[in-house]
Every structure is written in C-alpha cells, then in structure tokens.
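Reopening this ticket.

The earlier resolution said the output was attached, but the attachment link was broken on my side. Pasting everything inline this time so it's all in one place.
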Amino acid sequence: SPRERGALQCYPNPTANELTVTGLAFDVSDVIILSDLLGKPVITKTILQPTLNVKLETLNLCSGMYVLTVK
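Inline output:
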C-alpha cells in the first residue's frame, strides 16, 4: 500500500520554527497531531490534498518533548 512507503521521519530535531514530517503518503483527511507528554494536542493539522511532506509551524511551542500521531 502507498501508506507503507517507509519509516515516518520528523526533522529537524530539535526544531525551532518548523517541523517537517515525511515517510508516509499522506492522504486527504489524514490528521497529524502533535501532543505534549500529558496527551494534550498542541498542533492539529488536517491534510487537504495528497502529499509526501507536511510542515508544522512550531514557533510558538515551549521547549520539551512531544508525541506525533498520524490518524
């Protein structure tokens, strides 16, 4: 399946302004969620057109560790 293109990658890590997510064939209506370690979503992005790379603005996030989920 196209979704199994490869391993999910996020870079740069650490990031300051923008995080690039790649490694999957993202499809319309897929949702990318970046959550803090307590499980609170801090960024939610819905894919509007098929793509191989998604950029998340991280400028307003506090330093720390986050969990990325793709649904």
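Reporter confirms the inline version is readable. The beta strands are 9-11, 18-26, 31-36, 41-46, 51-57, 66-70. The chain has a mean pLDDT of 91.
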